[in-house]
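REQUEST FORM: STRUCTURE PREDICTION
Request ID: SP-0412
Submitted by: Lab K.M.
Chain count: 1
Length (residues): 485
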Amino acid sequence: MTKVSSLLCSLVASAALLGQTFSSALAITPINITVKSGARQTFQGLGFSSTVNGSNRYAKLTQSQKNTLQKLVCNDAKFKIVRLWFEVNKYSPQPGIENMAVFVNPHVKSGFIADALANGCTTLLLAPNSVPPYMKSEDSVYIKDTEIFNYATLLANFIYRLKQEYGVKINATGILNEPNDTPIKFKDSQWPVMITALRQELDNRNLKDVKIVTPELANADSIAVRIIKAIKNNPEAWQALAAISTHSYNMAAAPWISSLIEGTDKEYWITEVGTNGPEEPGDALKAASAASRFLNDMNNRVTHWIWFIGHAQSHTEDNSTRLIPYTISPFQYQLFQKYHYLKQLTRTFDTGAVFRKSYSSLEKDMTWSSGKKPRITVASAKNPDGSWGIGISNYTSDKFFYALPAGLGYPEGTLVSDAQSGRAAETFAVTVFIEELAQAGDIKMKIYRSNSNVNNVYIGSAVMRKGTVTIPKVDSLDLITLRSQ
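STATUS: Completed
RESULT:
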């Protein structure tokens, strides 16, 4: 089915509804959010990565320029986690070969790791992205059973050598990035064996504090549920695992994933969030997507949340992967709108904030998954200093819709949008009720807003009475945050 045909099937049939939506665009829709009692996960911070090639280019910057970029992300925006790409197939192209330069040159000798740590980042996550070709089974796309222990040894030995020879301490490691999309995969039955083996190999090298974070699947879908269950059903592997992990694109964190760790001691890492394609500063559509997914993920027990690329040399056809694109000669950089949105969120929710579960009168769990995305996504947490933070993202916009040309069998100008996008622009009056504050006195809350080229602007205060506060106007693509005083 062609893209246009798919769009027609999913949206033109709703033409009457679309017309109704647009005709009432000036109305303000009331929505009630209930923040349920009960502490859930403790937030451990945002993070970012750089590609290997990006880190190689980073080496060409002056130290002052490097510090500028790292300070913007690690210090000013309070990102705490750095994800480090590890090309295992190039590190060990043949049995017995361990080429440290493949990783050390872009990440260590470039200054990328040291600069990030010096500017406020605290946690290093290793991201293996490939299995060496010689480990592949001859008659399938899976790793050989006999090579699983060798792969575990390869990862553990690399982490050990990195610490001993270069003084770089890895805090957590993945096993294989987006393993269902790589040339060499793991069977469900191989995951528990791999995790147990890696834990043993790390412990044998006195690396007991290195967390294992896996399976880093691209989507929080039925495949993720199946693989995580396979791990959980093996007590030894489940004990060895520190955190489950998925990515946050079209299918972000979801209740059917977070329910698997409810009542356990497991963390939930979103090890990659991103968008693709071109981008220019002031793009509130992409920024609202990022903010909505963050709030969605916080509602689903996520503890660590990592944007794909923090800063990298500009690539006009795919700049959207970056928060900050830059040029080397002359040195210039841009701050994309999503940078400002995420920075606003880190000023609302401190590292150590404990999230609660929020429910919506409009879209219940507000789950960001396959199909149309939630119009309003809200999350709330109590910060370590006792203050409460609330984040509200409006992911509605008329930019999702475009007019069909003539000659397709529909009236010229018929409005359609992608079945996976957001809905038409709508303004909401959002009332938030925090159950735990129902008996509290009046609480003053400062309110901030971001939108296109509006960057974390203070727009006044509101008084929360008996746990209830109303924001009378949350516009299309707004990020509104509140924090108590």
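NOTES: The chain has 14 helices and 22 strands.
Reviewed by: T.R.
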